[in-house]
Design goal:
With about 375 residues, the chain is mainly beta. The protein contains one helix and 18 strands.
């Protein structure tokens, strides 16, 4: 999506100064399947038939030097036995302006609401492991500036703020007292191109969380960065640095840990493969710092011009250290494995259909393992400009 936005902005900049255009598109999808233990409750083996529907509209307005994108998304899954339903919705606005030949700014704003289980869905970024089935609402805003200082040097700066609040629990399960919190972030970076295939640089990120109930926490992460086009097919980029962390409160604590990320991607005429490894420590909205280590692989392959297969696998280890809430059995260490595969075939220029499957395993310290799987068939339609 980011590449397509940049391509559209580049096309706009190459057009006459008076050029304006509006583009609307949407993707609608309907799905039916069977899943066991959809909320990954430890020890549960029951399953249910379920149906889901989603819509993702996209409106783009562009001029010679700017592009405004309004994105929407809504998804609902309804289980025919015992598990009720889950839904999520999002509205996002992005505005990119080419202020000068060398200076670009981007403003973002979004609102997200969901009752999707935060602890039970390893495919989502985990924001809070305390709850199962509790609705969350998140408001987010951000600003990013990119300055092309010279043909070889690029400087970036950004600021972000987000606020998360909770509704009531719906599906029970693990306890925990939710607390609304606000997260602030700053980032800055510098990149220097050594040649046409290699660039190196440095970046600093700062994140601070202020919780309504739990101790505030913050991190500062300076890191070195590098990017290299290995061949015409393979590209690698990554960063490595230290994470300086601090938790406030009566038991204030400071610590230092390693932060790193490595991406290796290859793009062939019909196949795309990416391998990623990350380790990061970040503040949370429930007191402790969270250290996350992950390794994942993503493979997509075009069987023909009109049929495609994909496969993803992820291992995630998450730890919140030696922190416990009074009277609440909060899992402080979790490990999860997620494997997903899908097949999709174009029936017409705008309609496609396919099937897929997913296996999930989550291991919670102090609890029995939680396993779940699902098998689905789907139909997808593309609306508007393609």
């Amino acid at each position: 999506m980011k590449r397509s936005r940049l391509a559209l902005l580049g096309a706009a900049l190459a057009a006459p100064a008076t050029a304006q255009s509006v583009q609307f598109s949407a993707v609608a999808q309907s799905e039916i399947g069977y899943g066991s233990n959809p909320f990954l409750v430890p020890g549960l083996t029951e399953g249910s038939v379920f149906a889901s529907a989603s819509i993702q509209p996209n409106l783009i307005y562009q001029t010679a030097r700017s592009m405004t994108t309004l994105l929407g998304q809504y998804n609902r899954e309804t289980y025919l036995h015992k598990f009720g339903y889950t839904d999520s919705g999002n509205v996002g606005l992005t505005r990119t302006d080419q202020l000068t030949q060398f200076l670009t700014t981007t403003l973002t704003a979004s609102f997200t609401t969901s009752n999707k289980n935060t602890i039970s869905d390893p495919t989502r970024p985990i924001t809070d492991p305390l709850d199962i089935g509790r609705r969350t609402k998140t408001l987010t805003g951000g600003y990013q500036l990119q300055w092309q200082a010279s043909a070889r040097d690029q400087i970036t700066y950004g600021a972000q703020v987000s606020h998360l609040s909770y509704g009531s629990a719906q599906n029970g399960g693990l306890g925990g007292i939710p607390s609304s919190y606000t997260q602030y972030g700053l980032n800055g970076g510098y990149s220097h191109a050594l040649d046409a295939r290699t660039s190196v640089g440095a970046q600093v990120t700062f994140s601070s969380v202020r919780s309504k109930i739990y101790p505030d926490s913050r991190t500062i992460q300076p890191a070195l960065t590098a990017k290299r086009q290995l061949t015409a097919v393979w590209e690698v980029d990554g960063h490595v640095g230290v994470v300086l962390s601090h938790i406030d409160g009566p038991f204030a604590k400071s610590s230092t840990s390693l932060g790193l990320g490595l991406n290796l991607c290859g793009t062939y005429p019909r196949t795309h493969l990416c391998l990623r490894v990350t380790r990061d420590t970040a503040p949370s909205g429930f007191g402790p710092l969270r250290t996350t280590t992950s390794a994942d692989a993503e493979l997509t392959h075009d069987l023909s011009e009109h049929s495609h297969v994909s496969f993803t696998a992820q291992y995630l280890q998450d730890s919140s250290g030696s922190f416990a809430l009074v009277g609440s059995p909060v899992p402080r260490n979790t490990r999860s494995v997620v494997a997903t595969t899908s097949y999709d075939r174009d029936l017409t220029q705008r309609v496609s259909a396919g099937f897929g499957g997913q296996y999930r395993l989550r291991m919670l310290t102090g609890f029995s393992d939680a396993r779940g799987y699902e098998a689905t068939v789907h139909v997808k339609a593309k609306l508007g400009r393609m």
